[in-house]
Automatic annotation (TrEMBL):
It comes from Rhodoluna lacicola. This is Integral membrane protein. It is found in: Cell membrane. The keyword NADP does not apply. The keyword Nucleotide-binding does not apply. The chain crosses the membrane at residues 20-39, 75-93, 105-123. It is a multi-pass membrane protein. Residues 12-129 form the DUF3817 domain. Keywords: Cell membrane, Membrane, Transmembrane, Transmembrane helix. InterPro entries: DUF3817_TM (IPR023845). GO terms for cellular component: plasma membrane.
Length: 144
């Protein structure tokens, strides 16, 4: 394996991993967001009512949540923060693929949307991984 092929395969592997992790977290936050909007509850960890449970709340006149526990971790909020950082890693993978494979800017945008449109990252990973494998094969053939 030549160094260029190794670099391209490394970028592809990073892209695949970040695509799946970002996609899973995006699905998770969409589920938690749905729970928040429908039954006004956040997923809570290690609070006063148990290890893992839904903490129900109400909203007062100032749009402040009332009734959430004072101790424990709000996993709904934490999942949003974690997804944000994972999306940054995903964009880094997208940028590496875009620059190393010399793809057009539209591919960069479509892949970037995969981190914010639910389930799209799974489709973009599958499609663009195949495209990348073809590009690697063409480069290896050209070098040989």
């Amino acid at each position: 394996m030549n160094p260029q092929e190794s670099t391209l395969r490394g970028a592809l592997k990073y892209f695949k991993v970040t695509s799946y992790i970002t996609g899973i977290f995006l699905v998770l936050i969409m589920i938690l967001w749905g729970i928040r909007l429908t039954i006004q509850a956040d997923l809570w960890l290690a609070g006063p009512d148990g290890f893992l449970y839904l903490a129900y709340y109400s909203v007062d006149a100032n749009d402040t949540k009332v009734g959430l526990p004072d101790s424990g971790l709000d996993l709904t909020v934490i999942s949003l923060i974690v997804h944000g950082w994972l999306y940054v890693a995903y964009l880094l993978g997208d940028f590496r693929m875009w620059t190393l494979y010399r793809w057009n800017f539209m591919r960069f945008i479509v892949i970037a949307l995969g981190g914010i449109v639910p389930l799209l990252s799974f489709f973009t990973e599958r499609h663009f991984s195949k495209v990348a494998e073809k590009d690697i094969a063409a480069i290896v053939k050209k070098v040989a």
